[in-house]
Amino acid sequence: MKYRPLGRTGLDVFEMGFGAWGIGGRTVGTTYYGDTDDRTSLAVLDRALDCGINFFDTSSAYGNGHSEELIGQAFERKRERAIVATKAGYDAWDRPPDFSPTAEVASAEASLRRLRTDYIDLFQLPNPPQEALGVPELRDTLGRLQKDGKIRAWGVSAKSPVEAIAALAEFDVAVVQANFNMMDVRALEALLPEIERRRAGFIGRTPLCFGFLSGAISKDTVFPAGDHRLG
Predict the structure, then answer these.
(1) Which residues are known to be catalytic?
(2) Other C-beta atoms lying within 10 Å of the C-beta of residue 131
(3) Which of 130, 124, 99 is nearest to 174 (CA)?
(4) Minimal CA–CA distance to 13: which of 54, 49, 42?
(5) Which of 114-123, 160-169, 190-199, 219-228 bottoms out in mean pLDDT, i.e. has the lowest?
(6) Which of 80, 148, 204, 225 is most buried, judging by how many CB atoms fall within 10 Å of its CB?
(7) Angle, to 10 degrees, between the axis of helix 161-171 and the axis of helix 191-198?
(8) What is the spatial distance between Cα 72 and Cα 58, in angstroms, rounded to a whole number?
(9) Are 123 and 153 a contacting pair, CB within 8 Å?
(10) 86-113 tens-digit pLDDT
(11) pTM as predicted
(12) What is 3-213's CATH number?
């Protein structure tokens, strides 16, 4: 098994992570991967951990918190083996994001309850506007959450490599997440060299391009109503 440090966070993660959007289940509009079965999701989480995958990426918006609840149920008694990353700001797809310090604290507390844990390994801000990151009170709040032991590190899940580079350059964030797969190699040109230069961590989002690179989807595949790939 091959593990590597996630930048300067002190977290050592398996080189392949578990993206937990899909297990969240049905949400409004085209914001999910179709209906799911919780027993299957829990079995898959257990199997992934047993196979050595220790990094699990979720969000308060995935299934309106249901993805976090499943991870909490699966790992409550083996929390020390799992590194859990979640995202705050978007708590539901049908509500606007809120990156205010008060909202971030409330979101962290709600995620802690759903995850059945007293700490979050990586707390990410999803697609935050630059002006939000520029608010000193927000960064102070994230620092207090770290000092209090409620989060171990924080980072940015960026809309594009351009936004990820800006977060690194202007705010020196410890970890950035951005799309990176065989159909989207934009991160190669400037983002990855900047990450290496700053000793930051990088999470490649959508490595299988929402399943289109998995070999399981063909031109005859019919997605269920509500599947975000219909968009």
Answers:
(1) 62
(2) 8
(3) 124
(4) 54
(5) 219-228
(6) 204
(7) 30
(8) 11
(9) yes
(10) 999 888 888 899 999 999 999 999 999 9
(11) 0.95
(12) 3.20.20.100
pLDDT at 220: 93
Residues with Cβ within 8 Å of residue 54, at least 6 apart in sequence = 3, 13, 14, 81, 82, 83
Q: Where are the domains of the chain?
A: 3-213
> Angle at the Cα of 97 (from 102 to 150), degrees rounded to 5?
45
- Decide if 216 contacts 207 (C-beta within 8 A): no
